[in-house]
Task: inverse folding
């Protein structure tokens, strides 16, 4: 009987000593836009931990898992490569070891990381006020960054000549709002944006007659940016 009580006491002490992670209604914003989370963020020892897949999916960054090693590698195009390890607050950033504010934790099959684990990948800053995690990406500026112009292959209705497909990307300066693009006569392209905009509404309006144009409007929290592309037919 004494052995049973002793065993129960040891188990009880282990439960009390294990840090618990609790699901919480924690908002997460990246570059000012709220990120939709498929798995709720959790709270552990007063620290907000974020579901790795959801956060990096919102940033269009791929996560590669290595189940045998209990690690996950995240690489940003043109940026940092970071390797996380379950139950460890140490990560490698481009091969160099760095300590995070809290360890990565796996719970219900989901790997959770602290906010500074996100900024280890994307740079920038992370703030936690007890209700919201605010992450600001290094070098981020609200506004359009590029547009994609596309016109499929088609046959000229008069001559029967096949006109080739064309597909080009035009870089946009977020602070410049009007552009002119030379295009082939009667071949005004379809315009689309390149970046994923979470929490940002955008619409594209195109006019094809008289003065062919495309207008891209971005709006967030009452701020509206309008970009105009004038097509010059030759």
Result:
């Amino acid at each position: 009987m004494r052995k049973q009580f002793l065993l129960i006491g040891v188990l009880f002490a282990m439960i009390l000593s294990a840090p618990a992670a609790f699901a919480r209604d924690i908002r997460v914003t990246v570059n000012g836009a709220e990120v939709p989370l498929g798995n709720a963020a959790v709270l552990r020892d007063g620290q907000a931990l974020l579901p790795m897949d959801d956060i990096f999916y919102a940033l269009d960054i791929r996560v590669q898992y290595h189940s045998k090693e209990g690690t996950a590698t995240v690489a940003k195009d043109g940026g940092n490569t970071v390797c996380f390890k379950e139950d460890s607050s140490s990560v490698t950033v481009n091969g160099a070891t760095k300590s995070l504010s809290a360890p990565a934790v796996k719970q219900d099959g989901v790997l959770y990381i602290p906010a500074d684990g996100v900024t280890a990948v994307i740079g920038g800053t992370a703030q936690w006020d007890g209700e919201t995690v605010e992450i600001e990406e290094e070098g981020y500026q609200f506004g359009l960054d590029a547009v994609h112009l596309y016109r499929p292959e088609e046959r000229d209705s008069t001559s029967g000549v096949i006109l080739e497909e064309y597909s080009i990307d035009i870089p946009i300066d977020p602070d410049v709002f009007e552009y002119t693009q030379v295009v082939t006569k009667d071949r005004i392209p379809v315009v689309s944006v390149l970046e994923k905009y979470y929490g940002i509404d955008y619409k594209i309006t195109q006019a094809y007659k008289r003065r062919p144009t495309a207008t891209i409007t971005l709006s967030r929290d009452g701020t509206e940016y309008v970009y105009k592309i004038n097509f010059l037919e030759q």
Q: What stands out?
A: The chain has a mean pLDDT of 84.
